[in-house]
Write a structure and sequence with these properties.
The protein contains 12 helices and 22 strands. By secondary structure, it is of the alpha/beta class. Bound molecules: flavin-adenine dinucleotide. The site of flavin-adenine dinucleotide has 34 residues, from helix 1, helix 2, helix 3 and helix 8.
Length: 456
Protein backbone atom coordinates (compact mmCIF):
# COMPACT_ATOMS: atom_id res chain seq x y z
CA UNK A 1 0.00 0.00 0.00
CA UNK A 2 1.29 3.48 -0.76
CA UNK A 3 0.89 6.37 1.63
CA UNK A 4 1.05 10.15 1.21
CA UNK A 5 3.97 10.31 3.66
CA UNK A 6 6.40 7.97 5.39
CA UNK A 7 5.90 9.87 8.63
CA UNK A 8 3.19 12.19 9.91
CA UNK A 9 4.03 14.01 13.14
CA UNK A 10 1.24 15.53 15.24
CA UNK A 11 2.60 18.45 17.28
CA UNK A 12 5.54 20.74 16.56
CA UNK A 13 7.09 21.05 20.02
CA UNK A 14 10.56 19.90 21.05
CA UNK A 15 9.76 16.23 20.38
CA UNK A 16 7.84 16.67 17.13
CA UNK A 17 10.17 19.12 15.44
CA UNK A 18 13.29 17.09 16.25
CA UNK A 19 11.66 13.89 14.94
CA UNK A 20 10.37 15.53 11.76
CA UNK A 21 13.69 17.18 11.02
CA UNK A 22 15.80 14.10 11.64
CA UNK A 23 13.47 11.70 9.82
CA UNK A 24 13.32 14.07 6.84
CA UNK A 25 17.12 14.24 6.84
CA UNK A 26 17.22 10.46 6.25
CA UNK A 27 15.26 11.04 3.02
CA UNK A 28 11.87 10.06 4.42
CA UNK A 29 8.78 11.96 3.21
CA UNK A 30 7.66 13.80 6.34
CA UNK A 31 4.73 16.05 7.29
CA UNK A 32 4.00 17.76 10.59
CA UNK A 33 0.85 19.46 11.91
CA UNK A 34 0.76 22.14 14.58
CA UNK A 35 -2.42 23.86 15.73
CA UNK A 36 -0.72 26.60 17.75
CA UNK A 37 2.76 28.08 17.41
CA UNK A 38 5.80 26.15 16.19
CA UNK A 39 8.20 25.34 19.03
CA UNK A 40 5.60 24.10 21.51
CA UNK A 41 5.73 24.51 25.25
CA UNK A 42 9.48 24.89 25.69
CA UNK A 43 9.98 27.69 23.21
CA UNK A 44 6.66 29.50 23.33
CA UNK A 45 5.34 29.14 26.90
CA UNK A 46 7.86 27.17 28.96
CA UNK A 47 11.61 26.88 29.45
CA UNK A 48 12.78 29.73 27.21
CA UNK A 49 10.42 32.60 28.15
CA UNK A 50 10.66 31.44 31.76
CA UNK A 51 14.45 31.66 31.72
CA UNK A 52 14.24 35.23 30.38
CA UNK A 53 12.02 36.07 33.33
CA UNK A 54 14.40 34.31 35.71
CA UNK A 55 17.26 36.45 34.36
CA UNK A 56 15.14 39.59 34.73
CA UNK A 57 14.23 38.76 38.31
CA UNK A 58 17.87 38.24 39.36
CA UNK A 59 18.77 41.89 38.94
CA UNK A 60 17.10 43.09 42.13
CA UNK A 61 19.40 40.96 44.33
CA UNK A 62 22.38 41.73 42.11
CA UNK A 63 21.78 45.48 42.64
CA UNK A 64 21.52 44.95 46.41
CA UNK A 65 24.66 42.80 46.46
CA UNK A 66 26.62 45.35 44.44
CA UNK A 67 26.61 47.76 47.38
CA UNK A 68 28.90 45.50 49.44
CA UNK A 69 31.39 45.62 46.56
CA UNK A 70 31.51 49.40 46.58
CA UNK A 71 28.92 50.24 43.96
CA UNK A 72 26.45 53.03 44.45
CA UNK A 73 23.43 52.72 42.22
CA UNK A 74 20.61 55.10 41.48
CA UNK A 75 17.04 54.04 42.14
CA UNK A 76 16.36 50.95 40.06
CA UNK A 77 13.15 50.81 38.04
CA UNK A 78 11.78 47.72 36.36
CA UNK A 79 9.59 48.01 33.27
CA UNK A 80 7.51 44.88 32.66
CA UNK A 81 6.29 45.83 29.13
CA UNK A 82 9.92 46.16 27.96
CA UNK A 83 10.74 42.68 29.21
CA UNK A 84 7.63 41.18 27.62
CA UNK A 85 8.25 42.92 24.26
CA UNK A 86 11.91 41.84 24.13
CA UNK A 87 11.03 38.31 25.18
CA UNK A 88 8.29 38.09 22.52
CA UNK A 89 10.67 39.28 19.82
CA UNK A 90 13.18 36.56 20.65
CA UNK A 91 10.49 33.88 20.91
CA UNK A 92 9.20 34.85 17.44
CA UNK A 93 12.74 34.51 16.09
CA UNK A 94 13.13 31.05 17.63
CA UNK A 95 9.72 30.02 16.30
CA UNK A 96 10.96 30.88 12.82
CA UNK A 97 14.08 28.77 13.30
CA UNK A 98 11.99 25.79 14.37
CA UNK A 99 9.89 26.09 11.20
CA UNK A 100 12.98 26.38 9.05
CA UNK A 101 14.51 23.32 10.69
CA UNK A 102 11.67 21.26 9.21
CA UNK A 103 11.17 23.01 5.86
CA UNK A 104 14.92 23.06 5.12
CA UNK A 105 14.82 19.27 5.06
CA UNK A 106 11.72 19.30 2.80
CA UNK A 107 9.34 18.40 5.59
CA UNK A 108 5.82 19.64 4.87
CA UNK A 109 4.16 21.87 7.47
CA UNK A 110 0.41 22.01 8.11
CA UNK A 111 -0.75 24.79 10.41
CA UNK A 112 -3.76 22.83 11.50
CA UNK A 113 -5.18 20.63 14.19
CA UNK A 114 -4.75 16.95 13.46
CA UNK A 115 -6.82 14.03 14.71
CA UNK A 116 -6.54 10.33 14.02
CA UNK A 117 -9.07 8.66 11.75
CA UNK A 118 -7.51 5.21 11.62
CA UNK A 119 -4.08 3.66 12.10
CA UNK A 120 -2.74 5.22 8.91
CA UNK A 121 -5.00 8.26 8.41
CA UNK A 122 -4.69 11.69 9.96
CA UNK A 123 -7.52 14.19 9.57
CA UNK A 124 -6.70 17.90 9.32
CA UNK A 125 -9.57 19.62 11.09
CA UNK A 126 -9.54 23.08 9.47
CA UNK A 127 -8.51 21.93 6.01
CA UNK A 128 -11.09 19.10 6.32
CA UNK A 129 -8.59 16.84 4.66
CA UNK A 130 -7.41 13.28 5.22
CA UNK A 131 -3.75 12.37 4.83
CA UNK A 132 -2.22 8.91 5.03
CA UNK A 133 1.15 7.93 6.46
CA UNK A 134 3.05 4.72 7.01
CA UNK A 135 4.10 5.80 10.51
CA UNK A 136 2.35 8.32 12.74
CA UNK A 137 4.02 10.02 15.68
CA UNK A 138 1.97 11.58 18.48
CA UNK A 139 3.99 14.41 20.00
CA UNK A 140 1.16 16.59 21.27
CA UNK A 141 2.68 17.51 24.65
CA UNK A 142 0.60 18.62 27.59
CA UNK A 143 -1.31 21.54 29.10
CA UNK A 144 -1.69 23.10 32.54
CA UNK A 145 -4.71 22.04 34.55
CA UNK A 146 -7.14 24.50 36.12
CA UNK A 147 -9.18 22.27 38.39
CA UNK A 148 -9.12 23.76 41.86
CA UNK A 149 -11.27 22.10 44.52
CA UNK A 150 -13.96 24.76 44.33
CA UNK A 151 -15.28 27.24 41.74
CA UNK A 152 -13.26 29.93 39.97
CA UNK A 153 -10.41 28.11 38.24
CA UNK A 154 -11.23 30.04 35.07
CA UNK A 155 -10.36 33.42 36.62
CA UNK A 156 -6.83 32.22 37.44
CA UNK A 157 -3.78 32.33 35.22
CA UNK A 158 -1.75 29.29 34.28
CA UNK A 159 1.86 29.32 33.08
CA UNK A 160 0.49 29.75 29.53
CA UNK A 161 -1.09 33.18 30.19
CA UNK A 162 1.42 34.44 32.71
CA UNK A 163 3.93 35.25 29.96
CA UNK A 164 1.49 37.75 28.44
CA UNK A 165 0.31 39.76 31.44
CA UNK A 166 0.01 43.44 30.55
CA UNK A 167 1.45 44.59 33.84
CA UNK A 168 3.47 43.23 36.69
CA UNK A 169 1.10 42.21 39.50
CA UNK A 170 1.79 43.98 42.79
CA UNK A 171 0.60 40.87 44.57
CA UNK A 172 0.18 37.29 43.39
CA UNK A 173 -0.96 34.02 44.90
CA UNK A 174 0.56 30.94 43.34
CA UNK A 175 -0.95 27.51 43.85
CA UNK A 176 1.42 24.54 43.67
CA UNK A 177 4.59 23.17 45.18
CA UNK A 178 6.36 21.79 42.12
CA UNK A 179 9.16 23.36 40.14
CA UNK A 180 6.98 25.61 37.96
CA UNK A 181 5.20 27.11 40.99
CA UNK A 182 8.50 27.66 42.81
CA UNK A 183 10.23 29.23 39.84
CA UNK A 184 7.39 31.71 39.33
CA UNK A 185 7.33 32.49 43.06
CA UNK A 186 10.98 33.56 42.78
CA UNK A 187 10.46 35.35 39.47
CA UNK A 188 7.67 37.54 40.84
CA UNK A 189 9.41 38.03 44.18
CA UNK A 190 12.57 39.16 42.37
CA UNK A 191 10.57 41.65 40.32
CA UNK A 192 9.07 43.14 43.45
CA UNK A 193 5.62 41.49 43.70
CA UNK A 194 4.29 40.33 47.02
CA UNK A 195 4.13 36.53 46.65
CA UNK A 196 2.11 33.93 48.53
CA UNK A 197 2.50 30.25 47.70
CA UNK A 198 -0.35 27.94 48.59
CA UNK A 199 0.51 24.25 48.58
CA UNK A 200 -1.57 21.27 49.63
CA UNK A 201 1.34 19.26 51.14
CA UNK A 202 3.39 19.85 54.28
CA UNK A 203 6.58 20.57 52.30
CA UNK A 204 7.35 21.86 48.79
CA UNK A 205 9.06 19.85 46.00
CA UNK A 206 7.65 16.41 46.62
CA UNK A 207 9.94 13.66 45.27
CA UNK A 208 13.20 15.63 45.64
CA UNK A 209 15.91 15.02 48.22
CA UNK A 210 14.66 16.05 51.67
CA UNK A 211 17.66 18.30 52.33
CA UNK A 212 16.98 20.23 49.11
CA UNK A 213 13.32 20.58 50.02
CA UNK A 214 14.17 21.89 53.49
CA UNK A 215 16.85 24.26 52.20
CA UNK A 216 14.62 25.81 49.54
CA UNK A 217 11.64 26.10 51.82
CA UNK A 218 13.68 27.82 54.51
CA UNK A 219 15.30 30.14 51.98
CA UNK A 220 11.92 31.18 50.53
CA UNK A 221 10.61 32.05 53.95
CA UNK A 222 13.76 34.04 54.70
CA UNK A 223 13.28 36.03 51.51
CA UNK A 224 9.75 36.95 52.47
CA UNK A 225 7.80 34.65 50.16
CA UNK A 226 4.79 33.65 52.22
CA UNK A 227 4.17 29.90 52.29
CA UNK A 228 0.76 28.52 53.16
CA UNK A 229 1.12 24.76 53.46
CA UNK A 230 -1.37 21.92 53.95
CA UNK A 231 -4.13 23.83 52.25
CA UNK A 232 -5.69 24.42 48.82
CA UNK A 233 -8.05 26.90 47.20
CA UNK A 234 -11.70 26.53 48.17
CA UNK A 235 -12.70 29.22 45.66
CA UNK A 236 -11.45 32.10 43.58
CA UNK A 237 -13.54 34.95 42.17
CA UNK A 238 -12.91 38.31 40.55
CA UNK A 239 -13.52 41.33 42.80
CA UNK A 240 -13.21 44.58 40.85
CA UNK A 241 -9.82 44.40 39.22
CA UNK A 242 -8.57 42.02 41.94
CA UNK A 243 -9.01 38.32 42.64
CA UNK A 244 -10.38 36.98 45.89
CA UNK A 245 -9.05 33.57 46.93
CA UNK A 246 -10.43 31.63 49.87
CA UNK A 247 -8.41 28.65 51.09
CA UNK A 248 -9.66 25.54 52.82
CA UNK A 249 -7.79 26.67 55.93
CA UNK A 250 -10.16 29.64 56.01
CA UNK A 251 -7.77 32.38 54.82
CA UNK A 252 -9.05 35.07 52.53
CA UNK A 253 -6.55 36.66 50.13
CA UNK A 254 -7.24 39.61 47.83
CA UNK A 255 -4.54 39.95 45.20
CA UNK A 256 -3.86 41.25 41.69
CA UNK A 257 -3.34 37.85 40.10
CA UNK A 258 -3.66 34.17 40.88
CA UNK A 259 -1.44 31.62 39.16
CA UNK A 260 -2.25 27.92 39.11
CA UNK A 261 0.77 25.65 38.77
CA UNK A 262 -0.92 22.53 40.06
CA UNK A 263 -0.01 20.06 37.36
CA UNK A 264 -0.08 19.27 33.68
CA UNK A 265 -1.97 16.70 31.62
CA UNK A 266 -1.26 15.15 28.21
CA UNK A 267 -2.91 16.71 25.15
CA UNK A 268 -5.02 13.81 23.96
CA UNK A 269 -8.54 15.26 23.96
CA UNK A 270 -10.24 14.91 20.61
CA UNK A 271 -7.51 12.74 19.09
CA UNK A 272 -9.82 9.70 19.24
CA UNK A 273 -6.95 7.51 20.39
CA UNK A 274 -8.97 4.85 22.12
CA UNK A 275 -11.27 4.42 19.10
CA UNK A 276 -8.34 3.23 17.03
CA UNK A 277 -6.96 1.00 19.78
CA UNK A 278 -4.31 3.21 21.41
CA UNK A 279 -4.14 2.51 25.13
CA UNK A 280 -3.81 5.42 27.54
CA UNK A 281 -2.95 5.58 31.25
CA UNK A 282 -5.13 7.07 33.96
CA UNK A 283 -3.88 10.59 33.31
CA UNK A 284 -4.56 10.21 29.59
CA UNK A 285 -0.87 9.62 28.79
CA UNK A 286 -0.23 7.44 25.74
CA UNK A 287 1.16 4.11 26.93
CA UNK A 288 4.25 3.11 24.97
CA UNK A 289 6.79 0.31 25.01
CA UNK A 290 10.52 0.80 25.50
CA UNK A 291 10.87 1.98 21.86
CA UNK A 292 8.04 4.54 22.24
CA UNK A 293 5.63 2.40 20.21
CA UNK A 294 1.96 2.64 21.22
CA UNK A 295 -0.43 -0.29 21.31
CA UNK A 296 -1.04 0.28 17.58
CA UNK A 297 1.96 -1.04 15.69
CA UNK A 298 2.72 1.88 13.36
CA UNK A 299 1.84 4.65 15.82
CA UNK A 300 4.50 5.97 18.20
CA UNK A 301 4.34 8.60 20.92
CA UNK A 302 7.11 10.64 22.53
CA UNK A 303 7.57 13.66 24.78
CA UNK A 304 5.21 14.94 27.47
CA UNK A 305 2.19 13.14 26.00
CA UNK A 306 3.65 9.86 27.27
CA UNK A 307 4.16 11.24 30.79
CA UNK A 308 7.55 9.56 31.21
CA UNK A 309 9.80 12.48 32.19
CA UNK A 310 8.39 15.85 31.22
CA UNK A 311 11.54 17.73 30.28
CA UNK A 312 12.66 19.20 26.97
CA UNK A 313 15.98 17.33 26.67
CA UNK A 314 14.15 14.08 27.39
CA UNK A 315 11.60 14.82 24.64
CA UNK A 316 14.47 15.51 22.24
CA UNK A 317 16.31 12.35 23.26
CA UNK A 318 13.15 10.28 22.74
CA UNK A 319 12.80 11.88 19.29
CA UNK A 320 16.32 10.88 18.29
CA UNK A 321 15.78 7.31 19.53
CA UNK A 322 12.48 7.13 17.61
CA UNK A 323 14.17 8.19 14.35
CA UNK A 324 17.01 5.70 14.86
CA UNK A 325 14.52 2.92 15.56
CA UNK A 326 12.11 3.58 12.70
CA UNK A 327 14.18 5.29 9.99
CA UNK A 328 17.75 4.14 10.61
CA UNK A 329 17.10 0.49 11.27
CA UNK A 330 18.75 0.70 14.69
CA UNK A 331 16.27 -0.06 17.46
CA UNK A 332 17.19 2.36 20.25
CA UNK A 333 15.33 2.64 23.53
CA UNK A 334 15.45 6.03 25.25
CA UNK A 335 17.55 6.03 28.41
CA UNK A 336 15.75 7.77 31.27
CA UNK A 337 18.41 7.06 33.88
CA UNK A 338 20.46 9.82 35.54
CA UNK A 339 18.69 12.73 33.89
CA UNK A 340 20.01 15.89 35.50
CA UNK A 341 17.52 18.62 36.15
CA UNK A 342 17.43 22.15 37.49
CA UNK A 343 14.98 24.36 39.28
CA UNK A 344 15.57 28.01 38.52
CA UNK A 345 14.78 29.43 41.92
CA UNK A 346 17.07 31.92 43.67
CA UNK A 347 19.43 30.32 44.40
CA UNK A 348 19.00 27.40 42.03
CA UNK A 349 18.63 23.69 42.54
CA UNK A 350 20.59 21.24 40.42
CA UNK A 351 20.06 17.56 40.97
CA UNK A 352 20.98 14.27 39.35
CA UNK A 353 20.50 10.68 40.42
CA UNK A 354 18.95 9.31 43.54
CA UNK A 355 17.89 11.21 46.59
CA UNK A 356 18.90 9.74 49.92
CA UNK A 357 15.36 8.44 50.36
CA UNK A 358 15.21 6.87 46.86
CA UNK A 359 18.58 5.17 47.29
CA UNK A 360 17.39 3.50 50.50
CA UNK A 361 14.08 2.57 48.87
CA UNK A 362 16.03 0.85 46.07
CA UNK A 363 17.95 -1.20 48.61
CA UNK A 364 21.32 0.61 48.61
CA UNK A 365 23.39 0.96 51.74
CA UNK A 366 24.61 4.52 51.54
CA UNK A 367 27.10 7.02 52.83
CA UNK A 368 25.96 10.62 52.82
CA UNK A 369 28.36 13.51 52.37
CA UNK A 370 27.06 17.01 52.68
CA UNK A 371 28.16 20.53 53.34
CA UNK A 372 26.38 23.79 53.88
CA UNK A 373 28.18 27.12 53.73
CA UNK A 374 27.89 30.78 52.88
CA UNK A 375 29.19 31.37 49.33
CA UNK A 376 32.35 33.49 49.23
CA UNK A 377 30.56 36.21 47.25
CA UNK A 378 28.25 36.87 50.18
CA UNK A 379 31.13 37.45 52.60
CA UNK A 380 31.03 41.03 51.30
CA UNK A 381 27.35 41.39 50.40
CA UNK A 382 26.17 40.25 53.82
CA UNK A 383 23.35 38.26 52.19
CA UNK A 384 22.20 35.54 54.55
CA UNK A 385 22.18 32.71 52.03
CA UNK A 386 23.49 29.19 52.39
CA UNK A 387 24.66 26.81 49.68
CA UNK A 388 24.01 23.11 50.18
CA UNK A 389 25.88 20.30 48.45
CA UNK A 390 25.23 16.65 48.96
CA UNK A 391 26.52 13.37 47.56
CA UNK A 392 24.72 10.08 48.09
CA UNK A 393 27.24 7.25 47.74
CA UNK A 394 26.72 3.48 47.56
CA UNK A 395 28.72 2.24 50.54
CA UNK A 396 29.28 -1.18 48.96
CA UNK A 397 30.89 -0.17 45.66
CA UNK A 398 31.61 3.53 46.34
CA UNK A 399 29.60 4.71 43.29
CA UNK A 400 28.05 8.14 43.55
CA UNK A 401 24.31 7.55 43.22
CA UNK A 402 23.11 11.11 43.50
CA UNK A 403 24.29 14.70 43.65
CA UNK A 404 22.10 17.50 44.98
CA UNK A 405 23.04 21.16 44.93
CA UNK A 406 21.22 24.23 46.21
CA UNK A 407 23.17 27.35 45.40
CA UNK A 408 24.17 29.83 42.68
CA UNK A 409 24.88 28.16 39.30
CA UNK A 410 23.67 24.77 40.57
CA UNK A 411 22.14 24.10 37.15
CA UNK A 412 25.49 24.59 35.42
CA UNK A 413 27.38 22.46 37.94
CA UNK A 414 25.00 19.54 37.91
CA UNK A 415 25.16 19.19 34.12
CA UNK A 416 28.83 18.27 34.44
CA UNK A 417 28.37 16.09 37.50
CA UNK A 418 25.82 14.15 35.41
CA UNK A 419 28.60 13.18 32.97
CA UNK A 420 30.64 11.72 35.83
CA UNK A 421 27.67 9.83 37.24
CA UNK A 422 26.76 8.50 33.79
CA UNK A 423 30.32 7.13 33.61
CA UNK A 424 29.84 5.41 36.96
CA UNK A 425 32.14 7.70 38.97
CA UNK A 426 33.01 6.65 42.50
CA UNK A 427 33.46 8.89 45.52
CA UNK A 428 37.19 8.03 45.42
CA UNK A 429 37.33 9.48 41.88
CA UNK A 430 35.56 12.65 43.02
CA UNK A 431 38.17 12.87 45.82
CA UNK A 432 41.05 12.28 43.39
CA UNK A 433 39.92 15.23 41.27
CA UNK A 434 41.82 18.40 42.09
CA UNK A 435 39.63 21.37 42.93
CA UNK A 436 39.27 24.62 41.00
CA UNK A 437 39.81 27.36 43.54
CA UNK A 438 38.13 29.56 44.63
CA UNK A 439 34.80 28.24 43.38
CA UNK A 440 31.65 26.80 44.84
CA UNK A 441 32.01 23.66 42.75
CA UNK A 442 35.27 22.75 44.48
CA UNK A 443 33.23 21.62 47.47
CA UNK A 444 32.01 18.71 45.34
CA UNK A 445 35.50 17.23 45.25
CA UNK A 446 36.58 18.16 48.75
CA UNK A 447 33.80 16.63 50.85
CA UNK A 448 35.87 14.26 53.00
CA UNK A 449 33.80 13.90 56.14
CA UNK A 450 30.99 11.35 56.06
CA UNK A 451 27.84 12.93 57.38
CA UNK A 452 25.94 9.66 57.85
CA UNK A 453 25.82 5.99 56.85
CA UNK A 454 22.44 4.38 56.35
CA UNK A 455 21.16 0.91 55.51
CA UNK A 456 17.90 0.27 53.64
C1 LIG B 1 6.32 26.89 32.51
C2 LIG B 1 7.13 25.71 32.07
C3 LIG B 1 8.48 25.73 32.26
C4 LIG B 1 9.26 24.65 31.86
N1 LIG B 1 10.59 24.69 32.09
C5 LIG B 1 11.37 23.67 31.70
C6 LIG B 1 12.77 23.72 31.90
O1 LIG B 1 13.31 24.68 32.45
N2 LIG B 1 13.52 22.68 31.45
C7 LIG B 1 12.95 21.60 30.83
O2 LIG B 1 13.68 20.69 30.43
N3 LIG B 1 11.61 21.52 30.65
C8 LIG B 1 10.82 22.53 31.06
N4 LIG B 1 9.47 22.47 30.84
C9 LIG B 1 8.89 21.26 30.22
C10 LIG B 1 9.08 21.29 28.70
O3 LIG B 1 8.58 22.50 28.20
C11 LIG B 1 8.36 20.12 28.06
O4 LIG B 1 8.83 18.92 28.66
C12 LIG B 1 8.61 20.02 26.56
O5 LIG B 1 8.23 21.22 25.92
C13 LIG B 1 7.81 18.84 25.98
O6 LIG B 1 7.91 18.83 24.59
P1 LIG B 1 6.84 18.07 23.70
O7 LIG B 1 7.30 18.20 22.30
O8 LIG B 1 6.57 16.74 24.26
O9 LIG B 1 5.48 18.88 23.89
P2 LIG B 1 5.14 20.38 23.54
O10 LIG B 1 6.33 21.22 23.52
O11 LIG B 1 4.02 20.76 24.44
O12 LIG B 1 4.62 20.33 22.03
C14 LIG B 1 3.40 19.75 21.68
C15 LIG B 1 2.82 20.54 20.53
O13 LIG B 1 1.72 19.82 19.97
C16 LIG B 1 0.72 20.74 19.60
N5 LIG B 1 -0.54 20.00 19.50
C17 LIG B 1 -1.23 19.41 20.50
N6 LIG B 1 -2.31 18.76 20.00
C18 LIG B 1 -2.28 18.93 18.66
C19 LIG B 1 -3.10 18.49 17.59
N7 LIG B 1 -4.16 17.70 17.80
N8 LIG B 1 -2.80 18.86 16.32
C20 LIG B 1 -1.72 19.64 16.07
N9 LIG B 1 -0.89 20.09 17.05
C21 LIG B 1 -1.16 19.72 18.32
C22 LIG B 1 0.76 21.76 20.71
O14 LIG B 1 0.18 22.99 20.29
C23 LIG B 1 2.27 21.88 20.95
O15 LIG B 1 2.83 22.90 20.18
C24 LIG B 1 8.66 23.53 31.23
C25 LIG B 1 7.28 23.51 31.03
C26 LIG B 1 6.52 24.59 31.45
C27 LIG B 1 5.03 24.56 31.23
Amino acid sequence: MSYDYDLFVIGAGSAGVRSARMAAATGARVAIAEDDRFGGTCVIRGCVPKKFMVYASHFSETFEDAVGYGWTLGEAHFDWPTLIANKDKEIARLEGLYRQAVSRHNGEIFDDRATLKDAHTVHLVNAKRDITAKTILIATGGHSVRDIDGPGGECCLTSTEVFHLEKLPKSIVIAGGGYIALEFAHIFHGMGSEVTLVYRGPKILRGFDEDLRDALQESMQKKGIRLMLNTTFASCRPEGDKKHVVTHSGESLIVDEVLLAIGRRPNVAGLDLEEIGIKCGINGNVIVDEYSRSSVENIYAIGDVTGRKELTPVAIHEAMCFVKTVFEDTPTAPDHELVATAIFTQPEIGTVGMSEEKALEFGHSIDVYKTSFQPLKHALTGRDEQTLMKLVVDSVNDRVLGCHIFGPEASEMVQLVAVALKMGATKAQFDATIAVHPTTAEELVTMRRKFASRAP
